[in-house]
Amino acid sequence: MNDTPLTVVGRLVNAPVLRRVGDAQVANFRLASNSRRRTPDGTWEQGNSLFLNVSCWGKLGTGVAASLGKGDAVVVTGSVYTNEYDDREGNRRSSFEMRANAVGPDLTYYVVKLGRVVENEYSGAVANPGDQSGADDDVAASDLQDVDFSEEPDPVPA
């Protein structure tokens, strides 16, 4: 099977749902990627939208379900394929699906402090915010005073 690798920047349409399939865990969510561009008069013009159903298997799924929620801005990379099915009326439909290899927050909108995942025999995978493995301590508020995370950035010219 040939995989089609793709990276998509977007927002979660729903909170990830973690479930068990056999011996594995999978987190599923829907991702929306909306394009827009600045017109010559300086206003924003809405472009096309892409919606993907995303599945995250194993440890990735556990981390996604524990870390992300509806509306979060993310960068997702994985393999894309088309799922074809018949709807209730018997019409042939298709949807885009992605099996994610990596998911992370879009740092255009967030400041993130990483926590390592530690496995233990009693509770499974748990976040360990104390083990930063060389990460900086806290980001000073003064370092961020000129950053406005509420606005979308200007698009990069093509």
Automatic annotation (TrEMBL):
The keyword DNA damage does not apply. SUPFAM superfamilies: Nucleic acid-binding proteins (SSF50249). PROSITE patterns: SSB. InterPro entries: NA-bd_OB-fold, Primosome_PriB/ssb, ssDNA-bd. Residues 134-158 have a biased composition (Acidic residues). One of its GO terms (molecular function) is DNA binding. Keywords: DNA-binding. The keyword DNA-binding applies. This is Single-stranded DNA-binding protein. Residues 124-158 are annotated as: Disordered. It comes from [Mycobacterium] wendilense. Pfam families: SSB. It comes from the Bacteria.
